[in-house]
Design goal:
Chains: A alpha/beta, B alpha/beta, C alpha/beta
Strand content of chain B: 5-15%
Number of strands of chain C: 8
Oligomer: heterotrimer
Distance between the termini of chain C: 39 Å
Shape of chain B: globular
Radius of gyration of chain B: 26 Å
CATH class of one domain in chain B: Alpha Beta
Strand content of chain C: 5-15%
Radius of gyration of chain C: 18 Å
Order of helices and strands of chain C: EHHEHHEHHEHEHHEHHEHEH
Shape of chain C: globular
Structural class of chain B: alpha/beta
Helix content of chain B: 40-55%
């Protein structure tokens, strides 16, 4: 294996006429600059844009006035979809100490194959494309984002950023390093593999429902 | 996969007369073209992004060794490992080693064109592992025992009826007997069958659309979420990626993502864009215990700085396939190997040899629509012509074509002789046409007259008439 | 203004009337039109077959033959593209010839591009009562960006109504030797194009390239379509009385 590594690198370096180095100054400067490419422009506010784009990819949303109203918003959604009152919930500080209605089964854990509904909290959102950004970690198990049929995600309104690059800046500022998985989720799962006909819910969630938390976290 | 690119003409002939295939192709073609058009028209910054994307790739390729080393360093810093493979054999061996060490039985696979290139499924199956393709399109062709016919829509050549038939045959054995008339029924059944596989798999293999040197992350874009399940549920995650996938930063990736989805499916972004960085952390509630990246060269380091260097900018969006009149007519299988369409006609001869792949660069009118829609501005017609140049230089061009070219050039180099000779031929043809203005068939011109009449010349050449003083 | 006409082989051999139409239009602009006798073929068939040496052997005398004129005009997007785009590329390893090729390229124009650039409002004196569709050769459209010019010129023909083809960007399937090397695929492509022409409701199809026109006209005739096919120059020069491409000498 190390022979192939040496051979590949040697061929590349010979062709480029320099010596390979992981800390070559020209690439370190380039990386450190975090220079952005052309930034798409639009008129609407980040919130308006986010909602417009979310709806375009068939995501749904509801406004939640405060943390105390999350349980009711979830209950409303489940009732509306005619779903049992059972869900797995991300062990996220924002979802701690929620009083669920009687009869609710809300377990704070990762998801497994049988789970129908999950609830997580987005790290932030990208207005440009109507996307949620979720960072894998103890407070955000990745399985919640993909296994259940219905994925509910709390998004504090003040964390809707204009573009993907703004999410990277925030990630660097607040976390320093990349988590194991950074998921940019835009609408529910879909496929067009059968006769180019778009069908929702291929392997991941069939429905994506965003709970827009007013005033932020 | 054993290439049949050398038999392109016969493959194409079969494809043109395959009614089911033609139905499937007709359904797919316009959709891709219209959706891309709409997506690009609604983004005024697209051209600027295209230029920025090209600059990013050019810069990265000019520093490819640095960036690969940086990427490797960052993968290791996040707890993952990197394996380097010069050839498909080495790449397969690396994957097999990892799977064996993990005592794996079942492998869940996300879509990977490099995986097709190195024939990883065959290698895994021969070694006794069960491999399940989890992208719906890939799953369909896996159970049909076919290669993909499109780089982003692998089962685009299959009709709904054919897919239902395949499912019925296989899934009935496991007791599934629901009706499969509609697209939702088909998709639901695949969801159910594959869900069990995800949960049972020991190893998940995915491809990578980008590798990020800054963070050591590998990026996949999917719509189904299968790649994420493959990378999250099993104990190990193996990423197969070719070396030219590396880009410097997260910001650079954002530029390329804006180009990729629009060029591929006309989406602004796919449903899931995921950045994997190392294995699960000590306090992570889920995710794989090990994270391996297999970096595949397979001829790419030789392309660097050479005649086909620009092909290394390719981000595998498939736009050149969708806009190619030849691809649209014959579909992907006719190309006889992993990569079809214009990008395939450039890559295949480089990867399987010019002897095997020589028909592909010739099977093009060089109409240039591929270059026009390529988000990376790859001069595909120029690269196809370069293959033809090398083919001619290596004397692989069929003798008849060489001879015809030499005979024509002999006259074309001698203007006086050329005038006399062409004038005789033109007058003769005109005589043969007998005033009808065209030929329904003509000796030595059957290839032309099979599908169309041959318009007859007008009587005398322009040059002869001009010389005689005719001016209008 | 001394203008050299590079006739191109297909016009020379199959459609001289398109060459004479080009001469007529150029003269109406006040140009002195000359036809350098040393010209044969630009070498494109060799170039696209990978025989770059033969292509260069043919290019050198042509570059010299066309060197001493104010302008070089070509009634074909494909051959003009060869001179303008590919000659400089072909000689990239020979600085002297590359410089000559670049000088030639700078002076060379596809016919409709030249006419649109140099023609005033009144140099076209033609009429046609009917619908006309313009097919763009891929090289004209993509290598040279010739798209608006032929349409602007057609709009000056009195009585003419211009229509656009569906999938206008698609290649007609001619492709030089492609049409005989891959006849089934070429046949499919030209069928699609001819269907689009028939569906457009056009009475006439025009293009700046005889290669495309022979291909599409041949297919239209095979289909039994009544659409008549002319080189763009013939319509602009008011020469649609003569038999169209693929039509009998006498009606």
């Amino acid at each position: 294996m190390s022979d192939s590594r040496a051979a590949i690198l040697a061929r590349i370096s010979r062709s480029l006429a320099h010596e390979a180095a992981a800390d070559a100054p020209e690439i370190l400067q380039r990386i450190e600059a975090h220079a952005r490419g052309p930034q798409p422009q639009w008129e609407a506010s980040p919130r308006e844009r986010f909602i417009e784009k979310l709806e375009k990819v068939v995501g749904t949303w509801a406004e939640v006035a405060s943390k105390e109203n999350i349980a009711q918003a979830v209950a409303d959604y489940l009732a509306g979809q005619n779903l049992p009152q059972r869900l797995c919930v991300a062990p996220h500080p924002l979802l701690e100490g929620i009083t669920w209605p009687d009869g609710f089964q809300a377990e704070r854990r990762r998801a497994v194959g049988e789970d129908r509904v999950s609830l997580a909290v987005a790290f932030c959102a990208i207005a440009e494309t109507g996307s949620l950004v979720l960072l894998a970690g103890p407070d955000s198990p990745t399985t919640l984002n993909f296994l259940p049929d219905d994925f509910l995600c709390v998004l504090p309104e003040n964390r809707i950023l204009p573009r993907m690059e703004d999410a990277w800046a925030l990630l660097r500022e607040e976390r320093g390093a990349m988590p194991r998985a950074t998921n940019i989720v835009t609408g529910p799962s879909r496929t067009a593999d059968v006769e180019q006909t778009i069908q929702l819910g291929a392997h991941g969630p069939r429905r994506l429902h965003v709970l827009l938390l007013q005033g932020g976290a | 996969m054993k290439p049949t690119a050398h038999a392109f003409s016969a493959n194409a002939h079969r494809a043109l007369h395959d009614r089911t295939l033609q139905q499937a192709l007709a359904k797919a073609g316009v959709g891709f073209v219209d959706k891309r058009r709409a997506a690009i028209d609604s983004l005024p910054e697209f051209q600027a992004l295209r230029e920025a994307g090209k600059r990013i790739k050019d810069h990265t390729l000019a520093n490819l060794d640095h960036y690969l080393l940086r990427f490797e360093q960052q993968v290791m810093a996040s707890g993952g490992s990197v394996h380097w493979a010069e050839s498909p054999e080495q790449a397969c061996a690396a994957v097999l080693d990892i799977c064996k060490q993990a005592n794996a039985k079942m492998v869940a696979k996300g879509k990977s064109m490099v995986g097709e290139e190195i024939a990883i499924n065959d290698a895994l199956e021969s070694a006794g592992f069960e491999v399940v393709e989890t992208d719906l399109g890939e799953y369909i062709i896996q159970i049909a025992h076919e290669p993909p016919s499109h780089i982003i829509a692998p089962a685009v050549h299959k009709t709904r009826g054919q897919i239902a038939e395949l499912f019925e045959k296989l899934h009935h054995q496991s007791g599934l007997t629901r009706p499969l008339q509609t697209v939702p029924q088909i998709v639901d059944e695949a969801r159910q069958v594959l869900r069990e596989k995800f949960l049972a798999a020991d190893v998940g293999i995915t491809g990578a659309n980008f590798l990020i040197a800054e963070t050591g992350s590998t990026v996949i874009v999917t719509n189904e979420g299968n790649g994420d399940l493959s990378a999250t549920l099993p104990r190990m995650h193996i990423v197969l990626a070719s070396i030219e996938k590396v880009v410097p930063t997260l910001e650079d990736t954002s530029v390329l993502l804006r180009l990729l989805a629009r060029s591929a499916t006309g989406q602004e972004i796919t449903s899931y864009t995921t950045f994997f960085t190392g294995p699960r952390r000590a306090d992570d509630p889920d995710g794989p215990e090990q994270f391996h990246v297999v970096l595949v060269d397979n001829g790419r380091s030789r392309m660097l700085g050479g005649d086909y260097h620009e092909m290394l900018r390719c981000i595998r969006c498939g736009a050149c396939l969708n806009h190619c009149p030849v691809y649209s007519a014959v579909g992907g299988h006719a190309y006889g190997w992993v990569y079809p369409g214009p990008m395939g006609a450039v890559l295949t001869p480089l990867m399987v040899g010019l002897q095997e792949g020589r028909p592909l660069p010739n099977a093009s009118t060089l109409c240039g629509r591929c270059e026009e829609v390529c988000p990376m501005s790859i001069p595909l017609p120029k690269l196809l012509r370069e293959h033809r140049r090398q083919e001619f230089a290596q004397r692989l061009t069929p003798p008849r074509a060489r001879w015809a070219l030499a005979a024509w050039a002999f006259f074309a180099r001698r203007p006086e002789l050329y005038r006399q000779a062409t004038r005789i031929v033109i007058k003769l043809l005109n005589l043969l046409a007998g005033g009808k203005g065209r030929f329904r068939s003509l000796l030595f011109a059957q290839a032309w007259t099979a599908a169309r009449d041959l318009p007859a010349p007008q009587g005398d050449t322009f040059m002869a008439q001009w010389k005689q003083g005719k001016r209008s | 203004m001394r203008v050299a006409l590079f006739v191109t082989c297909l016009v020379d051999l199959f459609r001289p009337s398109a060459g004479f139409a080009a001469v007529k239009l150029l003269e109406r602009l006040g140009a002195e039109v000359l036809v350098p006798p040393a010209q044969t073929c630009c070498g494109q068939p060799a170039y696209n077959s990978g025989d770059f040496n033969t292509a260069r052997e043919l290019a050198r005398p042509l570059i010299d033959a066309l060197a001493f004129y104010d302008h070089v005009v070509v009634p074909s997007g494909s051959c003009a593209g060869m001179l303008i785009t590919h000659y400089p590329e072909l000689f990239k390893a020979e600085p002297l010839w590359q410089a000559k090729a670049e000088t030639l390229a700078a002076r060379t124009r596809e016919l409709s591009a030249f006419l649109a650039e140099h023609g005033g409002d009144d140099f076209i004196d033609a009429s046609f009562a009917g619908k006309v569709a313009m097919h763009d050769a891929c090289s004209a459209r993509r290598e040279l960006g010739v798209l608006a010019q032929p349409r602007a010129l057609l709009d000056k023909v009195s009585g003419l109504e211009r229509v656009e083809l569906k999938d206008a960007e698609a290649c007609c399937g001619f492709g030089g030797t492609f049409c005989v090397k891959y006849p089934d695929i070429s046949g499919r492509m030209v069928s699609d194009k001819a269907e689009a022409v028939a569906a457009s409701g056009a009475d006439l199809l025009v293009s700046g390239d005889i290669g495309c026109l022979m291909n599409i006209a041949g297919r239209l005739k095979r289909m039994g379509s009544p659409v008549r096919v002319y080189h763009l120059a013939e319509v602009l020069a008011g020469m649609t009385e003569a038999p169209a491409i693929g039509e009998p000498d006498k009606p």
